[in-house]
Amino acid sequence: MEPGSVRENDLHDVLAGLGPWPGHVVVGPGDDCAVLAGAGGGAGGGVTIATVDQVVEGVHFAPGEDLELVARKCIARSISDIAAMGGAPRWALATGAIPAAMTHDDAKRLLLAVHRWGRHWGCPVVGGDITGTSGPLVVSVTAVGVVEHARGAVLRSGAKPGDGVYVTGRLGGSLASGRHLRFEPRVVEGAWLAQTLGTRLHAMMDLSDGLGIDGTRLARASGVRLLLDAAALPMHEGVAGWRNAAGDGEDYELLFAAGGEVPSACGTTGTAITRIGTVQEGKGCVIVAGGVEFEGGGLGWEHGG
């Protein structure tokens, strides 16, 4: 492929079509985490969940950014995937491709910060690999967690017609404001939702690429249609409008579908929970603004293209 021709969604489809998997692989590629049985997990069916994410200079952060915040984001992105399954992080592995121009002191500072942030979230970095590169700084973090509640790991694929669609926190402006480097993974909120709603919590994922494109992914995984209300989207102060809230990306809030009553805030942290739509029969994710329907799949951040 020519540079810039990689389409993330297309490659996701390729990976999701792999298989069949050995019996201990409950869920393979295509969700926020892989789900593995019989691997020393918690009470939720004895499962372990695992994910990997990378942070690339010039893509996920600007050149010259504070290395402390870069390290924080490296860990937080993977932990956010653990949160999206209702899990608890346990340990991580990290790899780093260090640019030739980076000084030894800066590389050491980055390395130590990655380890410090892992411990901060109860996910110590227990190993990894370091290499040099003539390209940009790249750090990849594999995080492993467990599901400790009876609900079990929450997948993207369980949304049902009639469910409400909800988000935690507020959306939009993450890159412009710098929140993408400082966000708090919703680990506590994800576990609380799983424990509080139990089997009424039908599907959940984190919002990394934007509500529009990620909502489309959840709808596709569940074989349903999401009908979202633009006027209901909770936005950060200074966000210009619903298109930014749905398309800016890098929010790392939780998007979920549930049946029955859902509290308006997390009972543990107080994080706001907002109903933004309804699950219907059909396909896709549609956002209604001023009586007009807009396809959500065109609102978000897809790498490449």
**How much strand?**
25-35%
| Structural class by SSE content | alpha+beta
CATH topology descriptor of the largest domain = Phosphoribosyl-aminoimidazole Synthetase, Chain A, domain 2
Return residue spans where pLDDT drops below 50 for at least 5 consecutive residues. 1-6
Estimate the mean pLDDT confidence: 91
What profile does the largest beta sheet have?
Answer: 7 strands, mixed
The coarse silhouette is: globular
Number of helices: 7
Order of helices and strands: HEEEHEHEEEHHEHEHEEEE
- State the total count of DSSP E strands: 13
- From the alpha-carbon coordinates, what is the Rg to the nearest angstrom? 19 Å
CA distance, first residue to last residue: 11 Å
Fraction of residues in H or I helices: 25-40%
- CATH architecture grouping of the largest domain: Alpha-Beta Complex
In spatial order, strands of the major sheet run 8-10-7-11-9-12-13
Give the full name of the CATH homologous superfamily of the largest domain: PurM-like C-terminal domain
Instruction: Provide the number of structural domains.
Output: 2
Level-1 CATH class name of the largest domain? Alpha Beta
Plain-language structure description:
With 305 residues, this protein is an alpha+beta fold. Helix content is 25%, strand content 28%. It folds into 2 domains: 124 residues, PurM-like, N-terminal domain (60s Ribosomal Protein L30, Chain: A), CATH 3.30.1330; 135 residues, Phosphoribosyl-aminoimidazole Synthetase, Chain A, domain 2. It is globular, with a radius of gyration of 19 Å. A 7-stranded mixed sheet has the order 8-10-7-11-9-12-13. Strands 1-2-3-6-4-5 form a 6-stranded mixed sheet.
